[in-house]
Design brief:
Elements (H helix, E strand, L loop, with lengths): L2 H16 L11 H4 L5 H14 L6 E2 L1 H10 L6 H11 L7 E2 H13 L5 H9 L2 H92 L3
Antiparallel strand pairs: 1-2
């Protein structure tokens, strides 16, 4: 900050102390004053404010505002930066408090924001728009998660169906083999039953021949 600006700031503070100048009234609760914004939005704006409050003084001074605009890709002239501060510096201390920072977004929302540099801040730090993008990303991720879950369940069902088909085919083959075994047993039994008389006849004939040979053998020579 230039020496002249520092001198002006100190002079302003001395005037407030001496009672010559009354400081602007500041709301005790930003949440209560800026009711047009949700609590989540105000918290996001506070994060942005704290990001550029480099010295953690709870104020964004001239140099911090200069650095902020450079990081946003919209560097400002010395005069433009002073105009930006003047537009929202209600207590005239030469710095931007968080409450005054919130005025940027109030004026942007009601259409009364005129300073181009402040418009850049309002556009770049649009947490409502970011919230919509975040919600969109959330629901897209959820949709992908549901789709992946449905695909997994479908694969499980297909695998179970395949195992069921294989089990049925195995049971059918087993049943078929058992049927073939019964048919073979019946066929063998039928054949044995059919040739049984022949076998008995053959056995009787063989016994008869044996007896004849034995009789001849036993005759005296």
């Amino acid at each position: 900050m230039a020496e002249s600006e520092l001198a002006q700031k100190l002079s302003r503070q001395n005037q407030i102390i001496d009672g010559d100048v009354k400081p602007a009234k500041v709301s005790q609760s930003v949440y209560a004053e800026f009711k047009e914004f949700s609590i989540r939005e105000i918290k996001e704006y506070r994060k942005t404010f704290q990001k550029y409050d480099v010295d953690h003084s709870n104020f964004i001074d001239f140099m911090e505002l200069k650095l902020m605009m450079e990081k946003l890709g919209e560097p400002q002239t010395h005069l433009a930066l002073k105009e930006m501060i003047k537009a929202i510096d209600e207590d005239n201390d030469g710095e931007i408090s968080f409450r005054e920072f919130m005025l940027i977004f109030r004026y942007a929302r009601n259409g009364t924001l005129e300073i181009e540099g402040l418009k850049t801040i309002a556009t770049t730090c649009n947490v409502a728009e970011e919230g919509v993008k975040g919600a969109k990303g959330f629901f897209e991720a959820k949709a992908q998660e549901v789709a992946a879950g449905a695909k997994f369940e479908e694969e499980i069902r297909a695998e179970q169906e395949q195992k069921k088909i294989e089990a049925e085919e195995k049971a059918e083959r087993k049943k078929s083999l058992q049927g073939e075994g019964v048919d073979v047993a019946l066929t063998v039994g039928t054949v044995c039953h059919s040739i049984q008389p022949f076998l008995l006849l053959h056995a009787g004939f063989a016994l008869f021949i044996y007896r004849i040979k034995l009789f001849v053998y036993l005759q005296p020579t």
